[in-house]
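Teaching assistant's notes for section 4

Start the section by putting this record on the projector. Ask students to predict, before seeing the second block, whether Major facilitator superfamily (MFS) profile domain-containing protein will look compact or extended. Collect guesses on the board.
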Amino acid sequence: SLLVYQIFVYRWLNNTLGPVNSTRIASALSIPIIAAYPFMTHLSGIRLGLALYIAAMIKSVLAITRVSGTSLLQNNAVPQGQRGAANGIATTLMSLFKSVAPAGAGVLFSWAQKRQHAAFFPG
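Reveal the predicted structure now:
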């Protein structure tokens, strides 16, 4: 389904909305999808499986839209001779932040748990 979306739907979406608006809309729609996951614990059986499958598919489609949109914006902003270097730097930084973010969030969460009754920035 993601391949079909990338081949057929994304091209139309990008031509209609443009890379900036499609990236913005995909980013905004990702927030309620991710926020809905905790409420899916009230479901069980086939309804839970179906809800998880649909939410994961929508989340993946929105992620494809965001990544493709930002790649198009970057490629349009960089001259032809520098696109390889720009894409390499962008991919490297994206991988770096994907590896550092969970550790940073864990440290922040642990720090917040120790400061439940602090006057400034409590847990």
